[in-house]
Structures are given as structure tokens and as C-alpha cells.
Amino acid sequence: MRGEARLTIGQVAERTGLAVSAIRFYETRGLVAPLRNAGGQRRFRSSDIRRLSFVLIAQQLGFSLDEIRERMAGLPEGRAPTKKDWSRISRSFREELQERIDIMTRMRDRLDGCIGCGCLSLTACAIYNPDDRARRIGTGPRFLLGDAPEFAD
């Protein structure tokens, strides 16, 4: 960490808004890897602030810690990740986020109508899914998940 400021766990907590215990937890899960000084105290790179902030955002978007760790494993150890490093790992997040955005958009636009679940309880279901034709595609909300064509006649 030559030339780079070494931060205490308290400083990282202050900058990220995380509790010290949460930072330790993320360390045990392999999401950050601080160095230890001669006294055994953790010392973080300033780039660890971004790593932890990225973890927080990814969790809020529904990614599990295992998924986040797996993707962040592509970041270099021992140096601050570059923009190119972040771009490389962000591709897989971007693809999955787009899928989630697409599902949420369909949900927003169709939630008050037929979602292809096979309930046939709404008048609209008889129009969009006559005779429960979506059943042959599979169970669950097929239209909302984008797994089935709409059967509008």
C-alpha cells in the first residue's frame, strides 16, 4: 500500500456509514481484505470504501453476498481497482440488472391485468389467456416473467 493512505476501520465506517461490526462481517465474507499493522490492527485502502459501497448498493438491488463476492473476485488484490477493472465486473451486473428492470417494467405495466398465472379470476384473463393456454408453458406468472407469448386473440 505504498503511497496510499491507510485507513482505520473507524475511518472506513465513518465514510461508508457502516457499523464497524458490519465491516468486520464483510471481511469474513471475503468482500474486503485489509492489511494488518504491526499491532494487528486493520488498515484499509481508500479503494475499500468503494468496494464496501458497491456491496451495499448491490445488496439493495437484491444480489446476495455470495453473488457479489463471486463477481468482485475479478477485481485485483493489492491495488486499487481501475475504471477498466470495475467496467469488466460491472458487465455481468448490468446484464442481470437489465433483466430485473425488464421484469419490473412488465410488472408495473401489467400488474392490474392478466399476468398469465392461470387464475382466470379477472375478466381480462379470459381475454388474454383464454382457456388457460399459458398453462402449457409452465406454472406461475408466465406473462410477467416474459416466459410466454401473450395469447390475445
Any overview of this molecule?
A hairpin with a 5-residue loop joins strand 2 (35-36) and strand 3 (42-45). With 153 residues, this protein is mainly α. The model has no long low-confidence stretch (mean pLDDT 84). 50% of the residues lie in helices and 5% in strands. It starts with 5 loop residues before the first strand and ends in an 8-residue tail after the last helix. Strands 1-3-2 form a three-stranded antiparallel β-sheet. It folds into two domains: 6-97, Multidrug-efflux Transporter Regulator, Chain: A, Domain 2 (Orthogonal Bundle), CATH 1.10.1660; 111-153, no CATH class. The protein has seven helices and three strands. The chain has helices at residues 9-16, 20-28, 47-60, 65-72, 83-110, 123-128, 142-145, and strands at 6-7, 35-36, 42-45.
Largest sheet, in brief, is: 3 strands, antiparallel
| Oligomeric state of the chains present here | single chain
Helix content: 40-55%
As for the CATH topology of the largest domain, it is Multidrug-efflux Transporter Regulator, Chain: A, Domain 2
Q: Count up the domains.
A: 2
Number of strands: 3
Q: How many helix segments?
A: 7
The global form is elongated
End-to-end Cα distance? 66 Å
Name of the CATH class of the largest domain = Mainly Alpha
Structural class: mainly alpha
Q: Overall pLDDT, averaged?
A: 84
The stretches of 5 or more residues where confidence is low (pLDDT under 50) are none
Query: Into which percentage range does the β-strand content fall?
Result: 5-15%
CATH architecture designation of the largest domain: Orthogonal Bundle
Strand order of the largest sheet: 1-3-2
Order of secondary-structure elements: EHHEEHHHHH
Instruction: Write down the Rg.
Output: 23 Å
